[in-house]
C-alpha cells in the first residue's frame, strides 16, 4: 500500500472550455427518478410472473398497489420495461486521446452484471462455474450485453458491458477471472474441515479410553479455538463482501435503469435488510452502519441481486467416501457408532444447506431478485435471470412518512386482477443523506483513496472526460518532477491531462453576490502492470464562477489541466474527481498504450 500526499493548490477557475458531447447530460425526460432522500421519492422495480414463471407484460398502473409499513401510498410515476436489449447509447466519437467515464448503456433498459465470487466459493466450484460460463457464452442470445466482475481479496473489474462473445470469452478466460480459480484464505476447504474434526475426534477418543479429564478439556479448548477461527474468517468475509457491494453500487449508480447483479457464489454471508446468515446478531450489530449504507447504495443504484449457487446440485457429505471415518468410542458397538455418525452427519449437512439456501432467498428478496440453487444447469439459470430481469415495471411514490429517522421502512406491492408472483425490494433505510452529512463531522482521510486502487470499478456519479497527451516539449534532464512521489527514479514521460467535468454533476452553491463556488479533489496515479503505484498527485481545486461563466460551464463543462510525470514502467493512468459538497466521485482508468498509439503518427 502507499500513502498519497495531498498538496493543497488553491485555484480560482476563471475560464471554461467547450465540453465534448459525452459530458453533456443525457436527456432526462426518458429516465425514471431514483430514490434520493432529499427529494423523498422511493423507486421500486417490480418483476411480475404468472403461474408458469413467465414474465407478465401489459399490466396497467391501476392494478398496482403499494404500501409502506402497512400504509397505502400514492404512485407518482409508472413505466414498463418489456425486455428491451441493453444497448450502448449512440454517442459521437471521442477525439484522439480523449476518454470518458460516461456509462455506455441505454437509459431505461436493464444492465446485467456477472459477479464471479472466489472469496466465498471453493476452488472446485469455481472451476464448475467457469465451465458453465463458457457454455453459456458460446450460445449467447444476440443483443445480450454483460459486464464481468470478480470478488477475491477485493472487487475487481474484468470486462465492461459488451455483447461480443469473443470479448466475453477472453474475459472469462483471463487472468483476473474465474478462468484461474483462487483459493480463498477466508474459507476453509472440506479437507481442512475434515482434518479439524478428525483432530478433535482423536483427542475425544483418547479421553474416552483413558478417562482423562485433562485430555477432554484440551479437546474442548481445541474445538472452541476452531469455532472462533471460523467465526473470525466469516466476519472478515462479511466485511470484504459489504465493501465490494458498496463499490459495485457506486459503479452502477451512474447507469440509468435496473441493474441485475448475477452473483455466482458458494456462500452468501450477509443480508441487506435482515439478519446475517452467519455470525448472528452480534455481527449484525457490528456492521449495522455498513449494512444500512450498502442497502441505500444498492437502492439508489436500482440493483437487484440474483444469487446463484456455484456448487450445482449439493451432495450429502455422507456419500463422499473421501471424508473422515467416524471416531471410535469406547464401549459402543461399531454398527451403532456408524449409524449414529451417519444420522448426525446427514442432519448437519441438511441444516447447513438449508441455511445457505435461506440466506440466498433472503438476499434476493431484499433486493428484488431471485435465488437459484441446487441445479447443475447454471447456464439455463443465467438465461432465466436475464429473461426475468429485463421484463419489469418501475413505480415511484412519495412516502407519507416524512420523518427521515434512519429506520428500516418495509415496502409491500400488490397487483390485482390475477394470481401473480412478484419480485421487488422489500424496504429501505430512511436516511436523509444530505442532512446527515451536514450534521456530522467530515470523514477523516482521503475520500478518493478507496476508489483509486488499480482495477477498481470506475465510479460514475461525477461524469467527465480527460484528454491525455505527452507534454511538448518534454522537461529537460534534471528538471523538477511533476507529482508527489519524491522517491521516483529513472526515466519518465510527462503527460498533460485536461479534464472537462459536466457541471450538472457538481454542487456549485451561489453566494449572495451570485458567484458560484465549489471545491474539487482531483487525483492522478500511474500504475505498473502489477498494480504498483509509481507516481501520484492529489490537488484541491477551488472553483469560483460568476453568473456569466457559470452559464458557459452549464453548457460546456468545467475544465482544468494537470501535469504528471509517469515512469516508463507505468502502463495504466487512473484519475479521480471528488465533489466535496455532494460527496460524489467519478474515476477513470486508461491504458497508457492507447495514448502512445494515438500520439504516434501513422507511417
Radius of gyration: 27 Å
DSSP strand tally? 23
Give the assembly state of these chains: single chain
Distance between the termini: 42 Å
Helix content: 25-40%
User: Helix count?
Assistant: 11
How large is the share of residues in beta strands? 25-35%
The overall average pLDDT, rounded, is 77
- Principal-axes geometry comes out as globular
Largest sheet: 6 strands, mixed
Main structural class: alpha+beta
Question: pLDDT below 50 for ≥5 consecutive residues: which ranges?
Answer: 1-38, 84-92, 275-283, 434-444
How would you describe what is shown here?
- The protein is an alpha+beta fold.
- It contains eleven helices and 23 strands.
- Helix 1 packs antiparallel against helix 2, helix 3 packs antiparallel against helix 4 and helix 4 runs parallel beside helix 6.
Key attributes of the depicted protein:
603 residues, alpha+beta, six-stranded mixed beta sheet, five-stranded mixed beta sheet, 29% helix, disordered N terminus
What is the gist of this entry?
29% of the residues lie in helices and 26% in strands. It has 603 residues and is an alpha+beta fold. Strand 7, helix 1 and strand 8 (146-151) form a beta-alpha-beta unit.
Q: What's the helix and strand layout?
A:
Layout: E1 6-7, E2 42-49, E3 64-68, E4 71-73, E5 75-82, E6 98-100, E7 111-117, H1 123-138, E8 146-151, E9 155-162, H2 165-172, H3 190-210, H4 213-253, E10 259-265, H5 280-286, H6 288-300, E11 303-309, H7 334-367, H8 378-389, E12 391-397, E13 408-415, E14 421-423, E15 427-429, H9 433-439, E16 464-470, E17 492-501, E18 509-510, E19 516-527, E20 533-545, H10 547-556, E21 558-567, E22 572-579, E23 584-591, H11 592-599
Parallel strand pairs: 1-20, 7-8, 7-10, 10-11
Antiparallel strand pairs: 2-12, 2-14, 3-4, 3-13, 5-12, 6-16, 8-9, 13-15, 16-17, 17-21, 18-19, 19-20, 19-22, 22-23
Helix pairs in contact: 1-2, 1-8, 3-4, 4-6
Amino acid at each position: 500500500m502507499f500513502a498519497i500526499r495531498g498538496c493543497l493548490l488553491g485555484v480560482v477557475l476563471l475560464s471554461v472550455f467547450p465540453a465534448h458531447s459525452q459530458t453533456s447530460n443525457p436527456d432526462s425526460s426518458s429516465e425514471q427518478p431514483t430514490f434520493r432522500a432529499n427529494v423523498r421519492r422511493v423507486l421500486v422495480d417490480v418483476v411480475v410472473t404468472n403461474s408458469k414463471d413467465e414474465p407478465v407484460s401489459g399490466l396497467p398502473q391501476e392494478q398496482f398497489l403499494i404500501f409502506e409499513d402497512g400504509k397505502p401510498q400514492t404512485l407518482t410515476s409508472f413505466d414498463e420495461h418489456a425486455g428491451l436489449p441493453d444497448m450502448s447509447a449512440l454517442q459521437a466519437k471521442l477525439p484522439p486521446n480523449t476518454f470518458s467515464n460516461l456509462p455506455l448503456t441505454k437509459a431505461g433498459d436493464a444492465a446485467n452484471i456477472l459477479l464471479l465470487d472466489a472469496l466465498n466459493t471453493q476452488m472446485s466450484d469455481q472451476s464448475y462455474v467457469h465451465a458453465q460460463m463458457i457454455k453459456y457464452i458460446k450460445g449467447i442470445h444476440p443483443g445480450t450485453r454483460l459486464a464481468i466482475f470478480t470478488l477475491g481479496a477485493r472487487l475487481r473489474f474484468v470486462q465492461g458491458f459488451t455483447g461480443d462473445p469473443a470479448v466475453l470469452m477472453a474475459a472469462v478466460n483471463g487472468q483476473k477471472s474465474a478462468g484461474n480459480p483462487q483459493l480463498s484464505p477466508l474459507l476453509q476447504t472440506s479437507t481442512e474441515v475434515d482434518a479439524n474434526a478428525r483432530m478433535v475426534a482423536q483427542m475425544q477418543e483418547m479421553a474416552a479410553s483413558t478417562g482423562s479429564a485433562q485430555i477432554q478439556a484440551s479437546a474442548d479448548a481445541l474445538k472452541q479455538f476452531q469455532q472462533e477461527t471460523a467465526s473470525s474468517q466469516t466476519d472478515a468475509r462479511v466485511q470484504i463482501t459489504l465493501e465490494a457491494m458498496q463499490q459495485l453500487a457506486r459503479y452502477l449508480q451512474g447507469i440509468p435503469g435496473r441493474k441485475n447483479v448475477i452473483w455466482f457464489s458458494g456462500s452468501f454471508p450477509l443480508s441487506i435488510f435482515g439478519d446475517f446468515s452467519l455470525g448472528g446478531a452480534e455481527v449484525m450489530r457490528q456492521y449495522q452502519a455498513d449494512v444500512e449504507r450498502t442497502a441505500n447504495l444498492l437502492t439508489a443504484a436500482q440493483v437487484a441481486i440474483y444469487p446463484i449457487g456455484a456448487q450445482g446440485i449439493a451432495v450429502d457429505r455422507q456419500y463422499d467416501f473421501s471424508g473422515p471415518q467416524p471416531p471410535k468410542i469406547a464401549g459402543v458397538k461399531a454398527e451403532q457408532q456408524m449409524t449414529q455418525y451417519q444420522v448426525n452427519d446427514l442432519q448437519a449437512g441438511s441444516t447447513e444447506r438449508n441455511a445457505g439456501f435461506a440466506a440466498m432467498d433472503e438476499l434476493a428478496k431484499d433486493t428484488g431478485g431471485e435465488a437459484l440453487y441446487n441445479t447443475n444447469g447454471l447456464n439455463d439459470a443465467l438465461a432465466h435471470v436475464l429473461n426475468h430481469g429485463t421484463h419489469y415495471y418501475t413505480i415511484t411514490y412519495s412516502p407519507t412518512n416524512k420523518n427521515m429517522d434512519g429506520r428500516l421502512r418495509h415496502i409491500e406491492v400488490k397487483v390485482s386482477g390475477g394470481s401473480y408472483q412478484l419480485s421487488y425490494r422489500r424496504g429501505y433505510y430512511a436516511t436523509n443523506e444530505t442532512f446527515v452529512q451536514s450534521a456530522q463531522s467530515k470523514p477523516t482521510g482521503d475520500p478518493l483513496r478507496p476508489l483509486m486502487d488499480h482495477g477498481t470499478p470506475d465510479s460514475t456519479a461525477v461524469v467527465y472526460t480527460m484528454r491525455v497527451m505527452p507534454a511538448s516539449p518534454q522537461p529537460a534532464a534534471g528538471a523538477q518532477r511533476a507529482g508527489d512521489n519524491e522517491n521516483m527514479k529513472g526515466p519518465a514521460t510527462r503527460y498533460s491531462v485536461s479534464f472537462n467535468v459536466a457541471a450538472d454533476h457538481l454542487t456549485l452553491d451561489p453566494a449572495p453576490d451570485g458567484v458560484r463556488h465549489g471545491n474539487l479533489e482531483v487525483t492522478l496515479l500511474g500504475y505498473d502492470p502489477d498494480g504498483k503505484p509509481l507516481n501520484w498527485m492529489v490537488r484541491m481545486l477551488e472553483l469560483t464562477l460568476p453568473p456569466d461563466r457559470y452559464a458557459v460551464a452549464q453548457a460546456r463543462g468545467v475544465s482544468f489541466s494537470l501535469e504528471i510525470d509517469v515512469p516508463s514502467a507505468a502502463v495504466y493512468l487512473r484519475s479521480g474527481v471528488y465533489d466535496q459538497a455532494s460527496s460524489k466521485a467519478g474515476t477513470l482508468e486508461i491504458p497508457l498504450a492507447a495514448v502512445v498509439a494515438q500520439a504516434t503518427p501513422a507511417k
